[in-house]
Design goal:
The protein is α/β, with parallel strands linked by helices. It is built from 12 helices and 8 strands. It has one domain: TIM Barrel (Alpha-Beta Barrel), CATH 3.20.20. It binds phosphoenolpyruvate (PEP).
Amino acid sequence: MRKIIIAGNWKLNKTSLEAIDLVNGFKRDFVDITEVDIVVCPPFTALAEVHEVLNESNIGLGAQDVYWEDSGAFTGEVSAPMLKDIGVQYVIIGHSERRQFFGETNQTVNKKIKAALKSGLIPIACVGELLQEREANKTFVVIGKQLEESFAELTKEEMAKIIIAYEPVWAIGTGKTATPAQAQEVHKFIRDFLVKLHGKELAARVRIQYGGSVKPDNIAELVSQGDIDGALVGGASLQHESFVKIVKNSCLNSAKK
Ligand code: PEP
């Protein structure tokens, strides 16, 4: 059984005070939710304070990136042991904005996944094709390469701990959601890849989130698809009302997986 997981990626938004205000509201409204896992991923500067608020709640805490070395002369970076130390449980790795603006590659994603796992963090590993790649019928080639290289040398036990986020780049922040059928097609491809890599039992356990303009009115249909196990939500996770509705609407189809 795979439990649906909804994660909010706040990107470069919210001061500590704004973050505390937002999660206090989530805590209140999510208090009775047990059907789905909920995660918020504030910027680094708000993680420690948000952790204080979330302590012993049913909302998990994630970071938006991590460096692969534990410590040393790497100005500006934050390591997995540092995140673990302040109560972080999840980390988004390989988001398309990191790939597009900060030189992230499948090779650096691979190193970051290994570092996160070594420190007991759960990676949310992102893959996704550009619009021109989709239009050139290269979606599966691109996703296949991202999966192969990002998960290189990981054991079956390590793969079992990872969450994968399929985020078509053309759908991120554009208001242009992939149709449930388009998303399901790629999620199925990813699960089939996992079958080939480590067998059916492992593939049936790994959760695959969809990301790209998820909203309160499209989440239920997305998670009703056989291989879509939740969502990584950007813009709509920054507002109380929309994120609460997304989480609650995802519960409507939560028993299906
Ligand atoms: C994201 O950044 O991961 C994302 C999916 O953004 P949005 O929901 O705003 O498209």
